[in-house]
Amino acid sequence: MRISGFASGMDIDSMVQQLMKAKRIPVDTLGQKKQILEWRRESYREINAKIVDFRNNKLFNYNKAGTFGQMKAQVSGDTAAISVKADGSAINGTMSIKVDSLAEPRTTVGEAFIKKGSEIDVTKKLTEQLDSFIDDSLITDQKYTFSINGTKITVNPSEMSMKDIISEINSKTDVQAIYDEGKGALLLTTKQTGKNATIEILADPNDPNDPNFSKNDEFLKNALGITEESIKNSKPGQDASLVINGVSTTRSSNSFTINGVSITLNAKGSSTITTSRDIDKIVDDIKSFINDYNDLIKLLNDKTREERYSKYKPLTDDQRKDMKESEITLWESKAKSGLLKNDGILTKALADMRLSIYSEVETTGSKNIQQITQIGIETGLRTDLGKLYLKDEDKLRDALTKDPDAVIALFTASPALEPSEAGSTNMVQKPEKTGIFQRLYNNLKDALTSISDKAGTSAYSTSLTDTLKSDSILGKGIKELVDKIRTQNDNLSMLEKRYYRQFTAMETAMNKFNSQSSSLFGMTNG
């Protein structure tokens, strides 16, 4: 038990706190070192997320087959007759199309099952509208089952409206149903077009000997108007009839693809399709890549050149108590600044990125297009620190017009793996034969691996909250400091207890002395 300084008149708690304050300085220093490592690790995590996003998302999409070599298809002649869209596999050229007739679906018109002059509310339960049905004997609370082209449908008139029945058919089968209010009947149309489109509606089970067959068959005929006669009189589907480049042909669908061009037939007419490189799209993609590249370059440059304010140490708990929140924020922004200044991993990543961009690409294309400077892309001033600029768009467009494959190869070439050197089993893509996108992709993998080793990040995640691997260099350093802080705190706790024991002993001795003095004083005065 601690004894207050009644005998000595001293503030023992205050004295112990002052003694401990000096002793805690080494622990506070360790805590500041730990905080710096944690901040540095978080900085790596933020940069890692940006690199992963650039490499695994943006760069991957730029390099994806067809993305950077988009084609475009344009229609002349009867422009309303067809719609077209080209993908990356389309080839330059023209195609003539004459549409004689469109593909059509099979259509079945059911018999009327609503009385003439009557109407039904398609949103109300069937059993609530019995008077409107020609035959209401089957509009009960029973369940009826039938199949449309092999898909089973179950109807309960006491629980379902006409809208519910139609929704069930439309969502589950390959047939589209609508209710014709004027005729009081169902209209069924196949979702597919062509002469082979079918509509087969059967009571379920389709066995006349089954006791349920009769009621389900009667429900189809009398309650929904789907009779053998209506099925028999269905309007059959038909194939589209057209002439492509002078050759007559048919298609079961109005939408199809030829040589990478998706074509949709809209109406009769004669049209010409012209397919060519979509230079506008490629230029836009290159501009987008330049912006994304520059954003990452700027981030890495900013971090490696950020001012370090060495006098701004992480704040201790005692220091925070005497500061406003705004002061703490300002202080910590200074304390966090420059933690990755001249960082070896980031400076190497910057160098690798620049090398990926500026080195020649040995492709099978034009010898005049092996560097970005040959297509109008250059760096800015020295103060721009490696940022790219499209300084001559006309030069880029001219290159894309004259030799688009060479321009695309400059960015997207991805050669087969080769031995890294003669006799080696280490298979790599030779950098000099690899396009800019793949070079960046490969080199940034090295950066992500190094950051992971240093900070415990993932080379595949952009998350800023995922748990970091504890066996990283910084993770081990933080753990070592945590262990030291724990040990020193244990020692300080024991030291504090010793101080209190010493002061307690002093107080006890002084109490005893005071008691003896009082007794002597009493005896003398007696």
From TrEMBL:
InterPro entries: FliD, FliD_C, FliD_N
Keywords carried by this UniProt record: Bacterial flagellum, Cell projection, Cilium, Coiled coil, Flagellum, Secreted
All residue ranges annotated as the Flagellar hook-associated protein 2 N-terminal domain in the record: 8-104
GO cellular component terms given for this protein: bacterial-type flagellum filament cap; bacterial-type flagellum hook; extracellular region
Record GO biological process: bacterial-type flagellum-dependent cell motility; cell adhesion
Cell compartment(s), UniProt: Secreted; Bacterial flagellum
Keyword Secreted assigned: yes
Domain Flagellar hook-associated protein 2 C-terminal: 237-515
Pfam families referenced in this protein's UniProt entry, alphabetically: FliD_C, FliD_N
Subunit-level organization: Homopentamer.
Summary of the function given for this chain in its UniProt record: Required for morphogenesis and for the elongation of the flagellar filament by facilitating polymerization of the flagellin monomers at the tip of growing filament. Forms a capping structure, which prevents flagellin subunits (transported through the central channel of the flagellum) from leaking out without polymerization at the distal end.
Family statement: Belongs to the FliD family.
The protein, known as: Flagellar hook-associated protein 2
Source species taxonomy: Bacteria, Bacillati, Bacillota, Bacilli, Bacillales
